[in-house]
Amino acid sequence: MGTLTALRNYDHRLTRRMAAWESDWARKLLPPVEEAAEHTKLWCAAAVIIAAGGGWRGRKAAAAGITAMAAAELLSNGFVKQLVERRRPPKEWIPHDDVEDRPDSSSFPSGHTAAAVAFTAAVAPTWPWAGTACALPTALVAIERVHNGAHYPSDVAAGAAIGLAAAALVRTAPRLLMRRLG
Q1: The whole model's pTM is what?
Q2: How far, in Å, CA of 91 to CA of 107, rounded?
């Protein structure tokens, strides 16, 4: 068995296990997390709170977070999803009703995870406390995307990588631009 086949099989097994995870707190916590993360509402609200409560540093962190989130969404949803057509996990793998409320677009990568990771990774260097506060909702978004059957774990990992790349780009682009111009 090849390495790619082994990874795909592991990805499928992990998807089934996470989707079948029966936990009262997961059933109560993950659906509201999904709702809050839909259309980046969670991260826009976090940016407002960070900007309002953090003075100059908070405004800088919020701007970096929103910019990185937008870049990650553009990369994941506007570019990579158009290149990679991957079906969502089969409905029969998902033993709960959340499977009925998932998108029709490509499963790869997770745009929700890309946005969450990008926001958090861009906020953290400017205001570490705010970045730390965003880390838990970011992790919950990633878990929720697999638990509700919208994504495979590899989709979430790819979304996280895109989010990290977008945050790095937002952090380094001004310096690169200034060096190029001056």
Answers
A1: 0.91
A2: 13
